[in-house]
Fold this protein.
Amino acid sequence: MSAEVILKGVGICPGIAIGPPFIFTKTTLGISPDLIVGKDITNEVARYRRAVQKSHKELEILRRDFLDDLGQEGLALIGTHLALLHDPEWIKSIEEHITDKKNNAEAAILATLAHYKECFRLLKDPFFRSRFIDIQDMANRLLKALSHRTKKKIDKLPTCAVFFSDEISTSDTFWTKKAGVIGYVSRKGGPSCHAAIMARAQGLPYIVGIDVSQIPIDMLNTVIIDGEMGVIILNPTPEHRETFYTRQKELKAYESKKIKDAKEVAITACGVAISVKANVDYSDKLDPYNHAIDGIGLFRSESIVMDLRLMPSEEEQFIVYKGLLDKMGVRPVVIRTFDLGGDKNVHHNTTEDNPFLGCRATRLLLREKHLLRAQLRAILRASYFGFIHILFPMICALDELLEVISVLDDVKQELRDSHVAFDEKVPIGCMIEVPSAALIVDKIIGHCNFLSIGTNDLIQYTMAVDRGNSLLSHLYNPLHPAVLMLIDHVSKIAALKKCPLSVCGEMASDVRYLPYLLGLGIKEISIHPRFLHTVKEAISQITLVEARELAQKAL
């Protein structure tokens, strides 16, 4: 086994990875299917429900961490696991096993899981049959919550490892992403499995159809995987290493070329320039894309809180905001005030029955004005060094906008009294992401210098659909006439009032929807930097006359 061995699997995610192997074996949790009696039944049901609560919290944290990285598909994966966790039939089976058959929670989970496994085994469609892994993944999460084990798998992974496992679950992709895994190999899986979706979102190669149990990990130093060809090379020869290093460099060069091409101005086929800016988080690396964007159209300032796991001071915020201005030069930087609450419940620790409709974003900041004032001071101080815009999220009524502007005016006066320099004419904007705001935009626009449509929430609230709920994903439709009518209404009012308008939601980064947005009069978009090349290329193929006709048909 010290010699080179070449294996052939099925490549389901393209790319090349070269690094040490890590073979992950699912270990048992030492579960004992004990019987319970008397009062223990009530305690055991409560114990199971606590495990559900703990698992739910873990999934919410994952959804928060992956919200802006993985788009709708990634959110749907986590939504699937949340839905399974609270599935009435699953819960009924577990609790019946505890109350009627006197099983402890672990045994009840295993018995129910075995039943589901048999049901899924009988399904004819391989796609639906493969979905059993999600139920198994959810069950494992519950078992771990019951066992209180805090095994740190992440510590065992070597740097930049290729991850081998018999089957890779969605949960596995979460913790391996944080560990810096560079590729995946498994026996089970397919291009539509959730792990593959996550791997593609991260740009990592993935090969399936390999019996991992037959690979002698102790005798391997390096492996090469080619996700396009489905080839795995164990203990590669120097010649093969050189060949694949060269191919890897060529792929990176191609990606660099895409970034370079993205630097070209976005112009439609009929010669109209479209402004393309970037949506940015605190941890994003902007350098590769710095010269390909017309500015930062949305800086999610709450990402500072989520990354640091604490509320940054005014001075810490000032340093971050000034750093963004230094990178952008004369290009504008739009800073959205903290959009905390909802699925980003970091600082705001109260439990709400419906957090997406609860105390979040501007509502939260108006309740805790010390947070708002500190952030506005930091933004205004930084505005002296560049072109900053302030964007207020989740505005649903004119009262809210006027109140937050009043706080901004007070903070400006404080800085004047303290002789602190800032841009007296710093532009302020309102996010249009709630239907009520879209419908009264003619009132809102009189108090703003610009508007930004957040399509993610606008679709969610218009359609009354949690965008992370896979059971309702068919209803989350960006092209629903009601959604397009709201965008059309906002666009027409903005054009009439000569107010700059941008779209900063995922809809703007999806080339399927770009013609509709341009046809509705949108001339500025803000997207994740990784979509720059694709989006600019798509824009170059669109003519506005055809786009308008398409949009009118859709309306």
